[in-house]
Amino acid sequence: MQQDPISTADLYDEYGEQFQSISIQFQDFGGRLAFHGPARTIKCHEDNGLIKETLSFPGNGAVLVVDGGGSLRYALMGDMIAANAEANGWAGVLIYGAVRDRAALAELALGVKAMGSNPRKTVKRGHGVVDEVITIGDVAIRPGAMVYADIDGVLVER
Hints:
35% strand
């Protein structure tokens, strides 16, 4: 699913305070540098079971936003889970935590932003919550809120 790029800077210039800007300095890892869609949310800590499960279902152009607590000790997503997300029509994944398999992620037509990378994989216990309001930095993200991401940063609809 190809999306037309939308500039976060232009969106903010036009709509201002209708958006929250996440001040966390995410890195780009996916092959798509600009992506947008309605948020689906997960809060988990060093356990990617819910991420794997959620991305195995159709995304219908949504952006999965994961509050991993900013932990860089384990990768919450790698190439196989990301390839599944791409195949299932997700626009992108935003992870407040780490990913792995950077070279493979860069080849996917999927937006991927995260704090960093670590080759260490997580356990899959399925601990965490899905589709509840999460907070990353000082921005509350509710399920269904529009998320816009590009090389300038991430905006979330209030």
